[in-house]
Design brief:
The complex is a heterodimer.
Chain A (H helix, E strand, L loop, with lengths): L5 H9 L20 E4 L3 H14 L4 E4 L15 E2 L6 H21 L10 E5 L2 H16 L5 E3 L1 H7 L15 E5 L3 E2 L2 H14 L3 E3 L4 E6 L5 E6 L2 E4 L2 E4 L5 H7 L7 E10 L9 E4 L4 E5 L5 E7 L11 H14 L8 E11 L6 E4 L5 E5 L9 H14 L13 H4 L5 H4 L5
Parallel strand pairs in A: 1-2, 1-12, 2-8, 4-14, 12-19
Antiparallel strand pairs in A: 3-7, 4-6, 5-6, 9-10, 10-11, 13-16, 13-17, 14-15, 15-16, 18-19
Helix pairs in contact in A: 2-6, 2-9, 3-9
Chain B lengths: L2 E4 L4 E4 L4 E5 L13 H8 L8 E7 L7 E7 L5 E6 L14
Antiparallel strand pairs in B: 1-2, 3-4, 4-5, 5-6
The complex binds flavin-adenine dinucleotide and zinc ion (ZN).
Chain lengths: 417, 98
Amino acid sequence: MTRFSAAALVRNALNGQTGWTAQWPDAEPKGAYDVVIVGAGGHGLGAAYYLAKEHGITNVAVIEKGWLGGGNTGRNTTIIRSNYLYDESARLYDHALDLWEGLSQELNYNVMFSRRGVMMLAHNVHDVQSFQRHVHANRLNGVDNRWLTSAEAKDHCPPLNISADARYPVLGAALQKRAGTARHDAVAWGYARAAAARGVDIVQNCPVTAIRRGADGAVEGVETARGLIRAKKVAVSAAGHTSVLMDTAGVRMPLESFPLQALVSEPVKPCFPGVVMSNAVHAYMSQSDKGELVIGSGTDQYTSYSKRGGLPLIEHTLAAICEIFPIFSRMRMLRKWGGTVDVTPDRSAILGTTPVPGLYVNCGWGTGGFKATPGAAHTLAHTVARGEPHAINAPFTLDRFRTGRLIDEAAAAAVAH
Amino acid sequence: MLLIHCPYCDETLPEMEFAYAGEAHVARPVDPSRTTDEEWRDHLFVRSNTRGPHAERWRHVHGCARFFNAVRDTVTDRVLATYPAGSPRPDLPGKDTP
Ligand SMILES: Cc1cc2nc3c(=O)[nH]c(=O)nc-3n(C[C@H](O)[C@H](O)[C@H](O)COP(=O)(O)OP(=O)(O)OC[C@H]3O[C@@H](n4cnc5c(N)ncnc54)[C@H](O)[C@@H]3O)c2cc1C
Ligand SMILES: [Zn+2]
């Protein structure tokens, strides 16, 4: 693996780009590991990296049924923010944001984290009250978030229609300036490269078909398309397919999998600052560095593993976008896609131990777990290495659905990217 | 886009006419005060989240406004059968996907 640096760029420019080596080897699975992580998304790859780096556990395999980063990590609209309502969420997402800020340096890989700000529009009295409550709660938690008048919102984002007779009048907005976007693929690749450099095996095209438990009930390993792989510790980080896998270990999950879609326009010159979201009308938008407008909304209404979703939702989303930003009404859309997101009843993640000894789970990130990638990965590694949660992920238990100690971000935001 | 057959109106119509209403045949505990925390969890929060034929409730909101059930394959999104609320889930031989 060649370290990226200005000197390496110059050297390779002069020698015809012949000095670059493969970024990670395509590993064949061994028969046994100390830890097996199921799912090579950002969360699973990141956890492998932190296991190696912070806990010295390098005999680790990340097992992926397709290609690494081909799940929701490579399908999301890359919004990163931490202005969640509850203390538990604020700590978790702000921990992630702290890690995002140094991630490119840490991984020696440009993840293009860009603090371009995320602005959420308030269209009615309920929005105004709820967002102002968020702003106050965030301030108490030391999380950056501020209230803007509609004129200030327009100042921040000139394409915004704030006229009084707009279909969706803008009564104000909440702006988190520290929030922004990052390059999704680079996050998966950066973690994969850094983890592989520390000895982690990344095994692609290898579906895990079942989690194997021994006579004492504890985890023994995973059954895969390429045979049994033994491990005393298994962490499932498989997003939309988590409940299917956990079923094989006899653990029923409070999860439902929904299609979530996104689309991009043809690329145009820079014309749109930051990310703008509208929860009330279920639409949000940003502009990628390539120039495409990146557009998304809420999930389709029915559960599905199809990775598709229907056109009525796209139509609804674009209708809303055209009302909020009339200048884009003649923009042409280039492509749309979908992912399968795992949604919990309270819209907060599940990250921790399970009733099965040696089995750990990281899931339930639903429509908004890209932003959490470094934080989830970091605390998952801690949980797996120590066999008990980190203080930051401790509230995000599976058991909260029995005790009733929910972290009800569902009530706080309908579209929670 | 899904095409869904309303068993009451006896018409096959686009998804936009209907509202999804979650997994079907989820039975409410009969004796709430004797129901344990585990049973409440299972009733309120745990769903089968089936990958394959899934029994689910739909409501024909822009038609007869009534609830009915459907079996839909969650991999292909094809609706395999619809039937009135209160009737048992139909057997669909040969249509299961793994
Ligand atoms: C359209 C869309 C837009 C989104 N927008 C945002 C956003 O703006 N901001 C935000 O924060 N979040 C967003 N999200 C959510 C975000 O993408 C996810 O929460 C996050 O990427 C989850 O990361 P992960 O690593 O847990 O999952 P994934 O990247 O999905 O990784 C899970 C991996 O597990 C693998 N796997 C599954 N089953 C098996 C098996 N049996 N054996 C082996 N491997 C298996 C999958 O192939 C997959 O690669 C969006 C999601 C979608 C779909
Ligand atoms: Zn009807």
